[in-house]
Design brief:
The protein is α/β, with parallel strands linked by helices. It has 6 helices and 5 strands, in the order E-H-E-H-E-H-E-H-E-H-H.
């Protein structure tokens, strides 16, 4: 069976972001059935319907093409001011347009959130969930992945700091692989 391609959208744009470390850790632990691929969102122009012409911004076109080729989406987001970063919301907006023809609409998805604090990005996690409901994206409900104290549980190279964290991430990814299989679009 071919691997399921998962577009990984990292919500922090900072080069050494804790969230990028988390995405790296998840990629390093991906099961054989998944191929996690980082899709950068930092260079996407803000969504503006006036730019939705026969020639939209090239960054939008490239981004949408990569999302369309994916079988599923994994949002990996930090929390800013008890919510998702603007870059994540913009990535959802650009990927879901033009209306009715979005590259992410209907694709199975999951969200992993993180913060150096104790709550692990709870607010951001739930804002992502709220947005994708409208796009008919089946969101994996359980297990949830809120990574508190991410700066301590994932090292600078993107490796889980201990066996318990590694096992938690692996369980999340195995559940996501099953979720994708059960919710893949049928042609």
């Amino acid at each position: 069976m071919p691997k399921k391609r998962v577009a990984v959208l990292v919500g922090s744009l900072r080069k050494e972001a804790f969230t990028r470390r988390l995405a790296t850790a998840l990629r390093s632990l991906q099961p054989d059935s998944l191929e996690l691929e980082l899709v950068e969102i930092g260079a996407l122009p803000l969504y503006n319907q006036d730019l939705e012409t026969d020639s939209p911004p090239p960054a939008w076109t490239e981004y949408r093409t990569r999302l369309a080729a994916a079988d599923a989406i994994l949002f990996v987001t930090p929390e800013y001011n008890r919510g998702m970063p603007a870059a994540v919301k913009n990535a959802i907006d650009v990927g879901s347009r033009p209306y009715g023809k979005g590259a992410i609409n209907g694709k199975p998805c999951a969200v992993a959130s993180s913060s150096p604090g104790a709550l692990g990005g709870f607010g951001a996690n739930h804002q992502v969930r709220q947005c994708v409901v409208f796009l008919d994206m089946p969101m994996m409900q359980m297990p949830e992945l809120y990574v508190g104290q991410v700066d301590k549980v994932v090292d600078a190279s993107g490796k889980p700091a201990n066996d318990a964290t590694r096992e938690l991430f692996q369980q999340f990814l195995l559940a996501f692989a099953g979720w994708i299989e059960r919710n893949a679009k049928r042609a």
